[in-house]
Amino acid sequence: MTEGNASEQLSKMANCEYDLMGGMFYREEFKDLYNYPSYIMGSNYSLLIYHQEDTDIKGYDYNTLNGKRIGVLKRAVQKIERLQEFLTFNNISCELVYYEDTTEYGNCLESGKVDLMLRADVYMQEEAAAKKTAMEGVAEKQKAEEQSAGQEAANQQRQVEAANQEQIQAEIARQVADCAAMGVEDMMNQLFGEDMGIISAAMETLAMEEDEDDEEEEPELTLALEQELYRVLEEKLAWLDTLPEPESVPYAKNDPRWSRFGKSICRGWRFVQHFKSRYRPEFLLGWDIGRAAMLARWGRYLGWITEGEAVGILWELSQKAVQELHSWREFARSYIFGGLMWKLICGDGAASYLGYLADAATDLLTGSAEEDEGQWRKCP
């Protein structure tokens, strides 16, 4: 089996160097030179290819082909006939651009002269393999050049490091000799200067605290101690009830005293006052479940919990959602409601976040699979 262009192959076939030749179109001028088979000896697919950057053409929507220019090789008569039948059957109107020169035809799509190109899958596979081989060759060459340059740079770096190391060693030897000539007190003053007194006081304080810790060791939690802690708790609770406190008063929305609690809390309070007569606190359940699920995923990602623990948490959350919520719409409404309250308290991007959540819910419920959307519709 040998490879080459069509002209070379035909010439060698005429000189009886080959016994069989494949992938050839029937041509009337060659019928006396070559024996064409009476039956099909193989098959390939005809493809319409286009640039990935061309977003006007959709492989799943034939209507996007209307008005496009398709490059074809003029002598590929049967392929062109099948293409025309396909276009007519699907009521598609395209302009066919015919090429006689194979080189010009091969470059018609890259040159931008056509929108699509009629090709056979077997030739595309060969071209892809050749392109891959060429790219691998370029990559290998680039890698070798980078390694050579890296080695040279490493050699230069080692030379610089060696020179620096000699200077560092000399400086260390000088400082060691200077320190050896000092006493301990002079050395500490040299290191810490005026801070030496502070350091001494801090060391003494630490020593005193260690002594106190040794003396006040926490007692073991026995059953008797637990009962005693219960009694102390009751005393503290009773004591808190005796503390004086002003009488309760209602606050208006515009009361200036709300500013003491910060703007974010005020926004949250106003949100609750606005909606409290229409929605119960349980309406936030969808938001709470969604946030809890996200925290579980984050925890797994950070390695704080195992995958099994995360799956268990998500399962419990899903069951809670099934019990309390009755549709994806209800979940989405709850999540959007809680999301806006959260953003108002955080104080950033509330308007854009609300729009983002609404768009996301719409895509999940009504989006198309081709756009990687509609997951809620597929999973009732």
Report on this model:
With 380 residues, this protein is mostly helical. Among the domains are: 6-127, D-Maltodextrin-Binding Protein, domain 2 (3-Layer(aba) Sandwich), CATH 3.40.190.10; 261-378, no CATH class. It is 59% helix and 5% strand. The chain contains 13 helices and four strands. The chain has helices at residues 6-14, 77-89, 102-106, 121-180, 184-192, 196-215, 223-241, 263-275, 285-302, 307-324, 328-346, 350-366, 375-378; strands at 46-49, 69-73, 95-99, 116-120. The chain has a four-stranded mixed β-sheet. Helix 2 links the parallel strand 2 (69-73) and strand 3. Helix 8 runs antiparallel to helix 11 (328-346) and helix 9 (285-302) packs antiparallel against helix 10. It is flat and about 120 Å long.
Q: What order do the helices and strands follow?
A: HEEHEHEHHHHHHHHHH
- Biggest sheet record: 4 strands, mixed
Q: How many beta-strand elements?
A: 4
Global outline: flat
Strand order of the largest sheet: 1-4-2-3
Radius of gyration: 40 Å
Write down the CATH class of the domain at 6-127: Alpha Beta
CA distance, first residue to last residue: 57 Å
CATH architect. name of the domain at 6-127: 3-Layer(aba) Sandwich
The fold-level CATH name of the domain at 6-127 is D-Maltodextrin-Binding Protein, domain 2
Spans of 5+ residues with little confidence (pLDDT < 50)? 191-199
Class computed from helices, strands and strand pairing: mainly alpha
Average pLDDT level: 76
Short description:
By secondary structure, the protein is mainly α.
Helix and strand layout, with pairings?
Layout: H1 6-14, E1 46-49, E2 69-73, H2 77-89, E3 95-99, H3 102-106, E4 116-120, H4 121-180, H5 184-192, H6 196-215, H7 223-241, H8 263-275, H9 285-302, H10 307-324, H11 328-346, H12 350-366, H13 375-378
Parallel strand pairs: 2-3, 2-4
Antiparallel strand pairs: 1-4
